[in-house]
């Protein structure tokens, strides 16, 4: 039997029961006041527009379903179809397009596109948040690797590709960016977009970082030309953990 044969993928009441078991393993919680007791279920009645899974809190008298506060809230398509979409998106090794969801679920493309975006947003890990958000140190440095296509080999690094690296020292997470060349015009916007203003910026003495360094709570630089690579906790000796 296929996984997609499960009752909660085809029956609306089973879908609500399944989602309630996932979100409320110890019983329902009122999203309005946070109460966990004196919560009663209201018998569904389509003729009187009483929804499946509707509950009422005896404390604040508010009504709610398990969909409140989830990506399924306010959605007009059946919950069991939305659970199918979640399963298809999370189990497909190469992902699944909104067009494919539109065909499989037999919903409009607009509905499938909107639902796919909501599910992807819920799956987002938060790793795209700026580094150093709590005032921590962020190391920034550029390096040169490989070879530009068709570029003649020269003595220095002009024939190589420039890569900018950012490391959040507290979490060990890193971000790497390929840039056309190591210039302030190209690097400064990347630094501004990926590092919180309250962070402590750690760089070398390159002129690239002098202007942008004023935008942060602190900017310290080591002087490589003077053979200085560490000064106290000031360093750009990155320990990269690619996420």
Structural description of this entry:
With 243 residues, the protein is an alpha/beta fold. The chain has six helices and eleven strands. The chain has helices spanning 12-23, 79-91, 98-105, 109-123, 184-194, 210-213, and strands at 39-41, 55-57, 63-64, 137-145, 161-168, 173-179, 200-204, 218-222, 230-231, 234-235, 241-242. The protein has a six-stranded mixed β-sheet with strand order 8-7-4-5-6-11, with helices on one face. Helix 3 (98-105) crosses helix 4 (109-123). The longest helix is centred in the middle third of the chain and has 15 residues, at 109-123. The chain is elongated, with a radius of gyration of 26 Å. The model has no long low-confidence stretch (mean pLDDT 89).
Structural class: alpha/beta
* Amino-to-carboxy terminus distance: 37 Å
User: Ranges with pLDDT <50 over ≥5 residues?
Assistant: none
Provide the spatial order of strands within the biggest beta sheet.
8-7-4-5-6-11
Supply Rg. 26 Å
Helix/strand layout:
Elements (H helix, E strand, L loop, with lengths): L11 H12 L15 E3 L13 E3 L5 E2 L14 H13 L6 H8 L3 H15 L13 E9 L15 E8 L4 E7 L4 H11 L5 E5 L5 H4 L4 E5 L7 E2 L2 E2 L5 E2 L1
Parallel strand pairs: 4-7, 6-11, 7-8
Antiparallel strand pairs: 1-2, 2-3, 4-5, 5-6, 9-10
Helix pairs in contact: 3-4
């Amino acid at each position: 039997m296929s996984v997609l044969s499960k009752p909660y993928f085809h029956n609306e009441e089973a879908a609500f029961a399944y989602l309630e078991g996932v979100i409320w393993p110890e019983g329902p919680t009122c999203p309005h006041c946070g109460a966990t007791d004196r919560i009663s279920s209201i018998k569904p009645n389509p003729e009187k527009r009483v929804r499946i899974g509707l509950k009422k809190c005896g404390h604040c008298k508010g009504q709610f379903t398990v969909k409140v506060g989830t990506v399924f809230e306010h959605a007009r398509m059946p919950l069991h179809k939305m659970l199918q979409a979640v399963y298809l998106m999370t189990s497909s090794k190469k992902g699944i397009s909104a067009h494919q969801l539109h065909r499989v679920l037999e919903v409009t493309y607009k509905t499938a596109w909107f639902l796919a975006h909501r599910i992807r947003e819920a799956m987002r890990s938060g790793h795209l948040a700026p580094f150093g958000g709590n005032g921590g140190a962020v190391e920034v440095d550029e390096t040169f690797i490989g070879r530009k296509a068709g570029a003649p080999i020269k003595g220095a690094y002009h024939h190589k590709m420039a890569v900018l690296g950012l490391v959040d020292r507290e979490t060990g997470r890193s971000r790497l960016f390929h840039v056309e060349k190591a210039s302030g015009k190209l690097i400064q916007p990347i630094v501004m977009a990926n590092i919180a203003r309250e962070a402590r910026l750690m760089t070398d003495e390159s002129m690239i970082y002098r202007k942008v360094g004023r935008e942060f709570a602190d900017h310290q630089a080591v002087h490589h030309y003077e053979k200085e690579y560490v000064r106290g906790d000031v360093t750009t000796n990155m320990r990269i953990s690619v996420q």
